[in-house]
Each structure stands twice: as C-alpha cells, then as structure tokens.
Design goal:
The chain is mainly α. The chain contains 23 helices and no strands.
Length: about 450
C-alpha cells in the first residue's frame, strides 16, 4: 500500500473509517445481548453471570489481541507472512488451553466459586456460559491475523464487511435463541457471540484472499535493510504486546472480583456490563485508530504530524459523544428503554457514566502512542505503561471501594479512569512519542 506524503484528513478518514465501523459494529454486540438478557427471566442474576463469563473469556483471549497490530507492522512479503502465520496458529492453540483447564470442575470450583465467592445460581450459570467460549480465542486470533494483512494491503473496507457478517450472525442467533429456545440469558450471550466470531473468521479468509495472494507474490524482504523476519524476532517483538494485553485485560476480571466484595455488589455486577457496552461504543472508535495509525504513519514516521492532528480531533469528538448519554433524555433512553433495566437498577449507572466521559479521548491518544512505539519496534514501554495502569487501578479501588465504601461500580469506574490517565501520561513521558517530539524540535523530523 502506498501512503501519500502528509496524508490529508480526508485520506485518513477514508482509510480509517471502515476500521472504525468495524469496532462500532463489535461494540453494538454488548448492548444487543444485554437488552435481550434483561428481557429474559432473572435478568439480574443472568446479567451478572454473563458479565463474569465474558470477563474471563476476554482475559483468556488476551494473548492473541495484538495479532492484528503485529501483522500490520510486520507482514511485508511471503516469508514474513508465512512465519507470522505459523506463530499465530501456535499462539491460538496455546491461548485456548487456559479456558479448557478452567472448565475442569475442581479448577472452576477453586478459582471461580471460591475466589469470587459467587452465589450458587450465578456460579452455575457462569460455568455453563464458559463452555460456549471454548472456540472464541482461536477464531478471534485467526481473523485478527488476517485482518492485519488486509489492513497492510489497504483493504480496510473488506475488514468492515467481514465484521458486518459477524454482527448479522450474532444478532440472528441471539434472536433465534430468544424466540424459540428456553435458554438462560447468561448462555444466550456467549452462544450468539461465538457464532458471530466463527462466521467472521471464515469471512476474513475469503475476503482477505486477494491481499494474501499479493503478499505471497513478494518473494523476500520488500524494503532495503528490512532483513528477514525470524521467529526469534517475532517473539521478541510480540511478547511485550501479548503481556500488555494479558495485564490490561486482567483489569476487567479484577474489577469484577473487587465489585463482588464492595457495596451493592449484585447491582454493580448487573449494571457494569451495560455501562461497559455504552462506553465501549465510543472507546472502540479510538481503539480502531491504532492499526490505521500503524499503516499511515510511514516506516520512518514521516506522517506523524498529520496522523497526530487527526488523533487530537478524534479524541475530542469521542468524549463529547459519550457525554451526550450522561444526561436525560439519552440516559434513560439507553439504560431503561434500550437496555431494559429497571429504573432503580439504572440509577446505579448515572455517576459512572459521567465519570467515564474522558475515557474515549484517552483511548484515542493511547492508540496513537502505541502505534508510534510499535512502528519503532519498542514495545516494552507499552507493557510497562499497562503494568502501571493496573497497579494504579488496584490502589485507587482499594481507597474508593473499601476505604470510602463507595458503590462498587462507582469505585470501579473511578479506578479505571484514574489508571488509564496515569498509564497514558507514563507512556507519553517514557515512550517513543516523547522522543518524536525531541526529534521534531531538533529538525530531524
């Protein structure tokens, strides 16, 4: 893919918007499923069980999350494609094992029933829900690898088309199960999600065939001095990214554990997935910018000014979008009408939504920071920033949730926002963006 020098905002928008649409479509899955679960019997218990199972599945999926960024940054020819593909297959298989082990009854009882101290009905529904997630990790890992190759080739519209297939399959399955089957809501959610992901993986391989063929037609290192990509090089590049995902995604199970031991535990566990689904719609726009920035910055970061300016405007727009839902009539429309929560349960969400308004802007800026570090192949600062974030989250929750005895979901929101802010400031100071500013000031960029 040939990126023009100093790409305009229009060019960046055309390239990035299909990726944003992809993430927005994925972000709609949570609200759709939460709305259906809320309309089935025992909504509070089923929403809590679904939220716990989903948090565990996301944590297990963490090692494969960065395969899209890795493929976008590293796949440039036939050799690099084949090596990274083999690496991805091995990683997918390895990442599936922890969930299989967790489903052994004794392991589940010790780690989930015992550690989380769940009520028996919630624990039983959670165990059943986790069985549906067994194919989840491998399917996501494969499609993220293929999508990275497609993004590198400039085929971002096909990426969005594949996700449209996913959303359609997920929604169709959810409606079918809702209407015709007497399935607990906590099981309807993962069954629908996994069906959509499997369909998307198949669609990715089909829609990415042309991009893969073009990549395989390049016989060797495509850039002067690029060198051959070795397995050792892949591991050295990728393991900090995988560790970043594992540590970062551990946040959700950790906060679930914390909320279960805080004030208004069941209400917090029930409303948390609905709040998360709303905020994710706007955070997803920022998350989608990471791969676009990797592809558009240029191998020598020559387009950093244009890509950085676009990120700043996007950050402001995303946070303003979430702010609209912090107040009526949109607050009631989302939480009561769309999500189906009772007014007394929806009331627990108001303060957290207000607190979360800056989070989408931080997500955009973090995506830009990570893109710069990935292109310079300095992935360790990303990991360190994530370690700082999760440590800050734990400390802040201990103060707000247990020290000040705030409602669990409110304490979790304060902790999450505070941790993300500290992480972003750390990466700004210690990562490649600060070096980029110094080089620009010195006239080297």
């Amino acid at each position: 893919m040939n990126v023009p020098p100093a790409p305009t905002a229009g060019y960046i928008t055309r390239f990035w918007s299909p990726l944003a649409a992809t993430w927005i479509m994925m972000s709609l899955e949570g609200p759709v499923l939460a709305a259906l679960i809320a309309r089935l019997p025992d909504p509070k218990i089923n929403l809590a069980a679904y939220g716990i199972a989903f948090s565990i599945a996301i944590l297990v999926e963490a090692p494969v999350m960065m395969l899209m960024s890795a493929a976008t940054a590293l796949v440039r020819d036939r050799d690099s494609y084949r090596r990274l593909r083999i690496f991805a297959h091995g990683l997918n298989a390895l990442a599936t094992l922890p969930l299989c082990l967790l489903l052994i009854p004794r392991v589940f009882d010790a780690l989930v029933r015992g550690l989380l101290d769940l009520p028996p009905d919630v624990a039983g529904l959670t165990y059943g829900a986790l069985w549906f997630f067994v194919p989840w990790t491998a399917a996501i890992g494969y499609r993220r690898f293929v999508h990275g190759v497609m993004i590198r080739d400039g085929a971002t519209r096909r990426v969005a088309a594949g996700t449209l297939c996913r959303l359609g399959a997920m929604t169709g399955t959810a409606i079918l199960l809702f209407v015709f089957f007497d399935l607990p809501g906590a099981w309807l959610g993962p069954a629908s999600l996994v069906t959509g992901v499997l369909v998307e993986a198949v669609a990715a391989r089909w829609m990415g065939a042309a991009a893969i063929r073009r990549t395989l037609a390049i016989p060797g290192p495509s850039l002067a001095g690029a060198g051959t990509l070795t397995y050792r090089g892949i591991v050295s590049f990728y393991y900090p990214l995988a560790l970043t995902s594992i540590i970062g995604l551990a946040t959700h199970p950790m906060l679930t554990f914390f909320m279960g031991r805080a004030h208004a535990a069941l209400e917090s566990l029930a409303v948390s997935p609905v709040i998360g689904a709303l905020s994710f719609i706007f955070r997803a726009i920022g998350l989608s910018y990471q791969e676009a920035a990797i592809a558009l910055l240029g191998n020598d970061l020559e387009n950093h000014r244009a890509v950085g300016r676009f990120a700043a405007g996007l950050a402001l727009a995303c946070s303003l979008g979430l702010a609209v839902f912090a107040f009526d009539p949109f607050f009631s429309l989302w939480f009561e009408t769309v999500s189906g929560l009772a007014p007394d349960l929806a009331a627990y969400a108001w303060v957290p939504v207000i607190l979360l308004v800056p989070l989408p802007a931080l997500s955009v800026w973090l995506s830009y920071q990570r893109a710069v570090n990935v292109l310079r192949r300095r992935t360790r600062p990303i990991t360190m920033a994530t370690i700082v974030e999760i440590a800050a989250i734990a400390l802040i929750f201990a103060v707000t949730g247990w020290g000040l005895d705030l409602v669990g979901v409110t304490a979790a929101t304060i902790a999450f926002l505070g941790g993300r802010l500290i992480s972003t400031l750390y990466l700004e100071a210690r990562g490649e963006t600060s070096r980029l500013r110094r080089e620009r000031a010195a006239g080297r960029l």
